[in-house]
Amino acid sequence: MTAALPLPTTRTHCPYCAxxxxxxxxxxxxxxxxxxGDEAFPVNAGxxxxxxxxxxxxxxxxxxxxxxxxxxxxxxxPASWESALDLIADKFxxxxxxxxxxxxxxxxxxxxxxxxxxxLGKFARVALRTPHVDYNGRYCMSSAAGAGNKAFGxxxxxxxxxxxxxxxxxxxxxxxxxxxxxPPIAQWFERQRANGGRLIVIDPRRTPTARAADLHxxxxxxxxxxxxNSLMFVAVEERLLDAEFIxxxxxxxxxxxxxxxxxxxxxxxxxxxxxxxxxRQAARWLATGTPAMTLTGRGPEQQSKGVDxxxxxxxxxxxxxxxxxxxxxxxxxxGQGNGQxxxxxxxxxxxxxxxxxxxNDAHREQVARVWGVDPAxxxxxxxxxxxxxDSLGQPDGIRGLLVMGSNVAVAxxxxxxxxxxxxxxxxxxxxxxxxxxxxxxxxVVLPVTQWAEEDGTLTNLExxxxxxxxxxxxxxxxxxxxxxxxxLAGRLGCGDKFTFDSEEAVFDEFRQATAGGTADYSGITxxxxxxxxxxxxxxxxxxxxxTPRLFAERFHHPxxxxxxxxxxxxxxxxxxxxxxxxxxxxGRYQEHYNSxxxxxxxxxxxxxKPAPRVQLHPELAARWGIESNSLVTVQSRRASVEFAADxxxxxxxxxxxxxxxxxxxxxxxxxxxASLDPTSRMPEFKLAAVRIAAVRMAELV
Length: 701
Ligand SMILES: Nc1nc2c(c(=O)[nH]1)N[C@H]1C(S)=C(S)[C@@H](COP(=O)(O)OP(=O)(O)OC[C@H]3O[C@@H](n4cnc5c(=O)[nH]c(N)nc54)[C@H](O)[C@@H]3O)O[C@H]1N2
Ligand SMILES: Nc1nc2c(c(=O)[nH]1)N[C@H]1C(S)=C(S)[C@@H](COP(=O)(O)OP(=O)(O)OC[C@H]3O[C@@H](n4cnc5c(=O)[nH]c(N)nc54)[C@H](O)[C@@H]3O)O[C@H]1N2
Ligand code: SF4
Ligand SMILES: [Mo]
Fold this sequence. Notes:
This protein is an alpha/beta fold. The protein is built from 23 helices and 28 strands. The strands form 7 sheets. A 7-stranded mixed sheet has the order 5-4-18-17-16-6-7, with helices on one face. A 6-stranded mixed sheet has the order 24-26-25-28-23-27. Strands 10-9-8-12-13 form a 5-stranded parallel sheet, sandwiched between helices.
């Protein structure tokens, strides 16, 4: 008898969030796949959350799309690849002929690998020659990116490794709930605590993260900028500033000092709901318990003042001299799997690979040279994500759209309006492994490979470039996004610019295109990533070690200094009033991911969280006679949505919260509003005014 050989395993990464946990996949087919945490990968060190553990089920869902679909006679019907691809190319060509190059748009995703994001941007500019390509990262961390660029001259979510969290003595987490949204990060928080560090959390809800805090500020939604300016007021008043750091490493502090004079914490208490004594305590801890670190999440960022709010927190960390210290500084907790890489390489309306700018002539020339095209042929800047979607089917708007990796019908603010816009398109194509709510509205749906069936690179929340590795052959009938772009480019007459035959070949062209840019990947190779547990950008040559920490000596503005920006409170695009007296804010459950297109197909996850519920405070519930699981109709100026009640003392009595992981009539985004930040064009997902319109008892079954 011979002993059975152990089955081969593949080291790769989870398909979901920006933590990109290292995983080890086993099993000889997707049907028997096992997922384990990779102990050797330093970011998660073997730990996974429930979504990661159960991700194998994604490869086997009964409704996985395995053939292209084309709308015929009103319904989506199976079709051949040839006919589906021909139809897309013909429709796009026809729309561009009749209405101009700008009448076609592309919508990408932070779920796409660097290779895909790069090729999608190139496809937009070279094959379609449309300016209109943007992506769902605009909905995600664009406000933090805008602030980072203004203050530091560069945007890398965390300018240090995640493990630095354990080295901070005071950790301020503003509007993020990472114990649910990046759960394996908790081990770094635990080490920070064990090292004697303190935690301060700002969140209108007492989340699992807030429960672990020494100080929790349950602030009014939309009040973080005021709170940060009040912290700065105390720092100035109590002489907690690092004058030497301000003098040698920054510019512009005086204007900030003047601005914060009107943010006395006794005065701001009414607006923020946070008592003066607590603000003073936090400011003292941040100034004396050093190194001090501030991390922001979507709470303060997904606001129509998101960029200014993040700048207020950065101002504070700069004034206290914490930025660039090991264990200190400012970071944004990026969200999507490739939320970092996806924002660097040209699927954004204003951008070219390597974090270059499409309106900058030198940048246009550098990239055009790599692509072998005339710089003058590159389009200029296009619409941002929400504006792009809002223009669909409108006079002078976009008439043909391709969506790759986003479920915009569920994830967009004021979703009812966006669904109407999608319906008014002449032609909609979607590439996705599943028929999500956006694909249901499409004329053509193309089935694509999933994470465990393809190679590529992603850049995690630390700026570490890692490898997604293929464990299984894809099922017959699906193609990768890269193949689809190549096929379409051929049909559009520029196949010669899309001639690669592997993911690595795309990566090799891509890294050339980033050479000399801010996000320089030119020294990174697949072989290096394999050998080194990932490589941090910038990495300008193959013998460069990569850059785990960014600001030790200088910032990325030409003078090497960080810039202060005086910022003032302003109301949200909509605030509670006598008609709609409650705040409505949105976010996430640990068990579901974003629009839920993937996780609603995993039985372990839907078993744990089958439907959304609206969180509300017991006082509010008592006033309305609401009992647990009563059906509550929440109404905003845009729509009404009925949710089961989740009565919880951990939320402010003036605020309702619901997750946005469901579409259809349970979609939280039917209620949200689309005021945009003027710099980042981020929609205000975290602030709308609502009222309770009706309550009825849950039907007994
Ligand atoms: N389980 C799970 N994990 C995920 C995801 C997921 O969908 N599910 N998605 C991934 C992605 S793409 C992202 S972007 C990240 C997001 O990760 P987080 O930023 O942690 O997630 P959110 O739940 O959107 O928002 C965080 C908190 O902001 C609070 N909040 C609401 N309004 C305000 C406000 O005005 N001020 C403050 N200070 N706080 C406020 C909410 O109560 C919420 O607890 O998670 C990533 N990880
Ligand atoms: N109310 C409210 N709305 C929000 C937010 C909020 O906090 N509140 N958060 C916003 C944020 S931070 C984000 S990131 C967005 C996310 O929302 P979406 O943009 O909808 O992102 P996902 O739900 O992750 O959808 C990704 C889709 O891409 C598919 N997919 C995954 N990988 C690939 C791939 O490699 N190729 C292709 N072709 N398809 C792929 C999945 O099957 C899924 O259908 O939602 C935003 N919307
Ligand atoms: S934390 Fe994120 S990357 Fe890690 S297992 Fe959970 S979803 Fe996957
Ligand atoms: Mo996100």
